[in-house]
Amino acid sequence: MAGGKIRKERPQRGGATHFQGGIPFHKSKGQHILKNPLLVDSIVQKSGIKHTDTILEIGPGTGNLTKKLLEAGKSVIAVELDPRMVLELQRRFQGTPYSSRLKVIQGDVLKCDLPYFDICVANIPYQISSPLTFKLLAHRPLFRCAVIMFQREFAMRLVAQPGDGLYCRLSVNTQLLARVNHLLKVGRNNFRPPPKVDSSVVRIEPRKPLPPVNFKEWDGLVRICFNRKNKTLGALFRQKGILALLERNYKTLQALQLTSDGFDQDSEIAQSLSALGNTLGDMNIDTEEEEGKDNGDEDEDMEMDDGDAKGSEFKNKILGVLKSGGFEDKRASKLAQADFMHLLSLFNKAGIHFS
Questions:
Q1: Distance, CA of 308 to CA of 354 (rounded, Å)
Q2: What are the distances in angstroms from CA 41 to CA 64, 69, 341?
Q3: How far apart are CA 324 and CA 77, in angstroms?
Q4: Fewer CB near the last or first residue (10 Å), C or N of the chain?
Q5: How far is CA 61 from the centre of its chain?
Q6: What tens digit of pLDDT does each residue of 44-94 get?
């Protein structure tokens, strides 16, 4: 409801149309309204809302959650894509004590400039999960926390730890910027109409201060490591395509005599995270890295020919970095945040950069 394109709905054949307040729901826009009042109460309670809080709600629909948020906080900013839902929301609260404390923004949340807010509480359209997560984490000033309903598999990826089957680049990048906790599982029958999958509510709390790392460098390294997350790093960094990419970066930076120091971290993150959210691709996240599957690109898997003296010299430089930190036989699927930070620092000290 809060993001994505509005498409014309074709009449449903042989199936029931779901209504709330006389409004048909469109599944293509992620319109699955929470119908369980006890669940709504539980989400609001677990959000830890203060009476002084300005709350951001994304995809409010007909306002079931909105009403509870208005009761708990100072004000609510609701971002809604569907003009029919905007009108329903305005009608619902018109003439009530809540009307002056509710601001409705009609538009795509991924394209809107979000105002200041203390906390975000939302049941979002699942197709915007990844880009929305990183848009929120790039928002300044930082908010206190976000309590969001995600598709369960996406939520499990967000909270996955090293060694978990769902641990991936999404896990590492999100947890670099925020503390992420799973709050509760939500069955599909709590929605009208019911989605095809179960959901989970997750709490995301931005880290303050942020870790002292260049985010573009970080994501460049993590992207390579999770390309085949179950391969040893020694085997991964021997691949011809990866060596060629890193050597180009190395030569360019040597020529320009650039370093990764002195960057504006907030600016870097704000510029990088929007693109990152899109590349992760929502629920088709990490298709190139999932379970270390073969992507069929044989050329990328070829090792550098040791007969090439210059290529062999750079390859030895890369492998020397891995050996110095004891990373040659380790796998990305088992590495924690501190491990990736240590590895990045070793590469940077050797003049090898990833952006």
A1: 23
A2: 10, 9, 40
A3: 51
A4: C
A5: 22
A6: 999 999 999 999 999 998 899 999 999 999 999 999 999 999 999 999 999
